[in-house]
Amino acid sequence: MFYNQQSGTNRQNYMELLKRVGALSNLFSERPVPYLYYRAAENVFCKAFEAENLSRGDVSVDASKDRLGIGLKTFLHKNGMTFQKVAEFNKGMKEYYSENPQDIIEVISRQRNERINFAKRAHDLNDVIYHLVTRDVGVFKVFEEEMDYINLDQIRKVKQSKNIIHFVDDKNEYKFNISKSTLFKRFKTKNNPLAEFKVEILEDPYSYLLYGREEDYSFTLSEEDKHQKIYLPLYSPRTQEVHEKSGLNQWNASGRERHEDELYIPIPIWIHRTFNNFFPFDLERHRITGEQGSPFNLELPNGKILSAKVCQQDGKALMSNPNRELGNWLLRHVLQVPVGEKVTYEMLEVIGIDSVVVTKLSKDHFRIDFAAIGTYEQFEEENND
User: Fold this and answer.
1) Residue 349 CB partners (closer than 8 Å, separation 6+)
2) Strand 317-320 relative to strand 265-266: parallel, antiparallel, unpaired?
3) Number of C-beta neighbours around residue 201 at 10 A
4) Which DSSP string corresponds to 187-202?
């Protein structure tokens, strides 16, 4: 797995940081069980183990190190046999309308497996696991287990009760909430934690925050929180479709001969107006002189860096140079779309993403990652006045 392979120093740092976060539990609750906000847990894990934080992208894993993907979860220990959410399907619900619960389970199981594969392809991972921190009275407990695919050939005991369908395969027990379009897995954490340590909850955490040193609690913040970011759609917000001859299907456009991997990521014009200093591109100068954007580094989720810039009329396109590099990575490696086949919105629904998040690390270095369905719509609603 992961935890036992890390250095003693890193494991000790991890426990100490979790203790300090748990000490602030009375900010949120007066229960004797320490509280652990999931974002703080992600940031602490990555800081202590020098792992890459992938939580900025909506994929099945939250961190990676040495090509191992790690899904981070924290929840109440209870009886050590609790169901926890592992996937949401939301707008893809139309794909599994059926009166037969077996049919529904087969569809969502395939989608769950494809989302794990998508995360592995996007971040060049060899394997994926769960790292769990359960919370009990006065203690944190650490467990790990494989992030298993659902074995489609071994699905059995499919039983529906109102809006819940229970089922098992040869390794795990699941339930699917139809009304919430959410898949849950039972995590077994009864015995043999990898680590267990006491958490002393501060009676007055407010005084600690007022009079303690800033560095005593700044570790709960991620480096990502310090950088500006925007969201871009992988589809047309106007039609809610991926256009057949533009965007991800630019290779299919009429006119000149085009390379099979040619594409661009759409940049709605309001992005340039609202976030006019985000990209090295000046919309007003472009409209007067036709000047395109300046080149910058674009870091992919797998760490590879491409040369990119804002192009086309009104800066509507985020493209790599050469253009085919971004397209080959996205179309052939990540989405695995055969040459000549057009990308559709339904393809994006299956893997649960329809937009990307672009983080500005410096004036000429940006990072791109994937974002869940509906993320761009919410971003536009909050920012496009």
Assistant:
1) 91, 92, 95, 373
2) antiparallel
3) 18
4) EE-SS--SEEEE----
Q: Can you tell me the distance from the alpha carbon of 137 to that of 23, in angstroms, rounded to the nearest whole number?
A: 13
Would you say residue 209 has pLDDT above 90? no
- Which pair of tokens denotes residue 30? 């007066």
In sequence order, which residues have a C-beta less than 8 Å from that of residue 80 and are 6 or more positions away? 134, 188, 189, 190, 191
Task: Please tell me the pTM assigned to this model.
Answer: 0.88
- The confidence score (pLDDT) of residue 255 equals 87
User: Token digits for 69?
Assistant: 């993907």
How far is 343 from 331, CA to CA, in rounded Å?
Answer: 8
End-to-end CA distance of the chain: 48
Label the pairing between strands 305-311 and 317-320. antiparallel
From CA 51, how far away is CA 336, in angstroms rounded? 27
Q: Is 226 exposed, middle or buried (0-12, 13-18, 19+ CB in 10 A)?
A: exposed
Q: List phi, psi (to 5°) of 106.
A: -65, -40
